[in-house]
Amino acid sequence: RPASVVIRPPTEPLVEGSQTRLECVAAGAYPSAVIVWEKTLAGRSTVLKATSLRLGEVTSSWLTLVPEAEDHGATLTCRAHNPNIPVHAATTSTALQITFAPRVTLRLGYNLQTRPVTEGEDVYFECEVASNPPPHAITWYKDGLEVTHNLRGGVLVSNNNLVLQMVRRTSAGNYTCAATNTLATTTSNIMVLD
To answer: Residue 6 CA to chain centroid, in angstroms?
Structure first.
């Protein structure tokens, strides 16, 4: 069976939508090892197609991958076995770290989702962001103009949250939030405050 199996990471970070190539090297098997790549995400495993080259006791396998944001955190396993003794495989695994632009969703506070908003009550917005790396800035907008923290005016901005205290008719409008990381800035859906 193979004495060692190693995944050689790519030289550049894995970026969503950008093709990359990973290499797995198994050494010490005679005859040369057979290599199988497998991706496991949320308990479901998928066998991936790869290209292999056998030279004596060393087998190299190259996996071409176009990562998706959903692959972030998936486990990539390289399994090498001697074709004559397949039950004794050597394996190595790595967790995929995929860099991707923010995915942004704007939601109205839980207590306001099923009823109309009336003057004088507080309104709570939440900007849900999924990204890698995490966002370094979240910006709020009303009708395309930036909303800033204004304690006297009853506008409280705190990262992923926007609170409008004692709303008035002038608070009505189209609200969005935008998240920025090193890859991009993404704007959320529009939430109409009526």
So the answer is: 25
